[in-house]
Design brief:
This protein is α/β, with parallel strands linked by helices. Helix content is 40%, strand content 14%. The protein is built from 10 helices and 7 strands. β2, α2 and β3 form a beta-alpha-beta unit.
């Protein structure tokens, strides 16, 4: 089995890249991709972490694209982690994220929720703070019982403490990844909140922009979702990927490699994905 959708302490996960590799080895995974949100900073560590077993490690990233009403995330695999344009754009995105985080804190304080920046940052495990860390701090304070409640009441799009942030449009995300030699994959299309027909139409539009793959295996897919994604990828000639969207402590119900327990992403997906990249191994 493999897991091509994971997060580390360099975005909103609770494991370092080295710890992810070690954990992947412990559970017998043969392939692991790190796809932190809007950053490639953890990839050097991932690629060079010592491990007792041979695990194929894939340099990835997950970009947030401007889209409404749902959420569009675009994954990039086998990217050149030193690509200047990609790194420069990601630095700008991180600056915008930091500004947004302080505004979220202000909004929560205005609502009477007494949180400090240090409290929230403590849950990040690194310099990158995201909404899941706000959720953890709020749960610890007793303001909400779980992460879902936090997002439903305060942090989801349109809720009381939500703050929008600058995002790239889908075409820009696709261009950035492809120019960095990577393979472009649409993550978890179910979060787009579209009908089956509208989902297909949108993916066809993204294919015209350069989309190359579709996340067909995912922790939150129903059997029906999984079947529909496999059919779409086959019909449109897209490479198939899959992963748990593992974050660790921020979402402990989702396990590395297994999602909620039944996820099985097959090794056979590795070769078609590898074949699409234009990055030489020496660029990693």
């Amino acid at each position: 089995m493999i897991d091509l959708h994971t997060h580390s302490t360099f975005s909103d996960g609770s494991y370092t890249p080295t710890e992810l590799v070690e954990k992947a080895s412990e559970i017998g995974l043969e392939g692991l991709a790190l796809t932190d949100h809007d950053t490639v900073d953890g990839l050097e560590e991932l690629l060079h972490a010592e491990c007792d077993t041979q695990i194929e490690r894939i340099a990835g990233v997950e970009l947030s694209a401007e889209y409404s009403p749902g959420t569009m995330h675009i994954l990039g695999y086998h990217i050149d982690i030193h690509n200047e344009d990609l790194c420069a754009k990601l630095a700008l995105i991180r600056e915008a994220r930091e500004t947004r985080n302080y505004r979220i804190l202000e909004k929560l304080n205005e609502l009477g929720l007494e949180l400090t920046w240090d409290e929230v940052a403590e849950y990040a495990g690194s310099e990158v703070v995201g909404r899941p860390h706000f959720a953890q701090a709020m749960i610890a304070r007793g303001y909400c019982k779980d992460k879902q409640t936090v997002f439903d009441k305060y942090l989801a799009k349109g809720k009381q403490a939500y703050v929008n942030r600058a995002r790239l449009d889908p075409g820009e995300c696709i261009e950035l990844i492809r120019n960095a030699g990577g393979v472009v994959v649409l993550a978890h299309p179910i979060t787009l909140k579209l009908t089956k027909r509208k989902t297909r139409e949108l993916i066809e539009q993204l294919v015209d922009l350069g989309l190359q793959g579709l996340e067909c295996y995912y922790s939150e897919y129903s059997p029906k979702n999984h079947k529909e994604m496999l059919e779409l990828a086959t019909d449109l000639g897209l490479v198939m990927t899959g992963g748990s969207d593992f974050h660790g402590a921020a979402n402990p119900a989702v396990k590395l490699g297994r999602g909620f327990g039944g996820l099985k992403v097959p090794n056979k997906l590795l070769e078609p994905l590898r074949a699409k990249t234009t990055v030489s191994r020496g660029s990693l």
